[in-house]
Amino acid sequence: MDISPSILIVDDHQSIRDPLSAYLSKFDFYVEAVEDGKAMRQRLRERGFSLIVLDIMLPGENGLSLCRYVSEHHGIPVILLTAVTEQADRVAGLEIGADDYIVKPFDPRELVARIRSVLRRSATQMDVDADDGSGTSFHAYLFNGWCFYVDTRELRDPSGKIVGISTAEFHLLRALVENANRVLSREQLLDLTQKHGAISFDRSIDSQISRLRKKLEVDTRQPRMIKTVRGDGYMLTGSIKKTKAA
């Protein structure tokens, strides 16, 4: 049975894919490589991967769009490869669910270190999600008719329909439900949701709140669940019930 972490490289340049695949294989990783988003989607339908190394500048569907798709439908950690040095583009990647990024050209040894770091964080988060410290598997938060399953990262609306959320939206919603009816500043939300070593941009919380409201609220102009407390931050209001699996 294959127990090595499995890495999928998505890059349209064969001169990068092939040497990088060979290099990562030396570090006890099972590695596959594809050239574009279409091939990535097909491979994800066929098998699971531990982590995806994803180039932003791809022909057809770009890496940011693909990163959002992975976050919402597969929950696999993503490291973005980018030649773009603009801060806004790096922030955009982190906001839509990327776990880390590395700027081209890069030392492949640094990528190995980042892969290992992301895999360690992912494994730790899975352990935390599965156990609340009491030895009982955690199940869900119930609020305003919605059901938020922390262990499976699944959000269901009052009709029972699954609503897709990105990794960033998952961490933000978890911070809000765990601190329901309490005002959280942007700085507090960053502390509760950002990945270790990530660059902090407090205004990025505003855009994440906006996207989450579009999924939860009937009228985003007059939100009833995620309230803005002017000058202070945000607050999830209402009755929150925490349940556990039997």
Automatic annotation (TrEMBL):
Domain Response regulatory: 6-119
Keyword NAD appears in the UniProt entry: no
Domain of life: Bacteria
UniProt keyword annotations, A-Z: DNA-binding, Phosphoprotein, Transcription, Transcription regulation, Two-component regulatory system
Pfam families linked to this entry: Response_reg, Trans_reg_C
InterPro entries: CheY-like_superfamily, OmpR/PhoB-type_DNA-bd, Sig_transdc_resp-reg_C-effctor, Sig_transdc_resp-reg_receiver, WalR-like, WH-like_DNA-bd_sf
Annotated ranges, domain OmpR/PhoB-type: 138-238
Modified residues (4-aspartylphosphate): 55
DNA-binding region as annotated in the record: 138-238
Name this polypeptide is given: Response regulator transcription factor
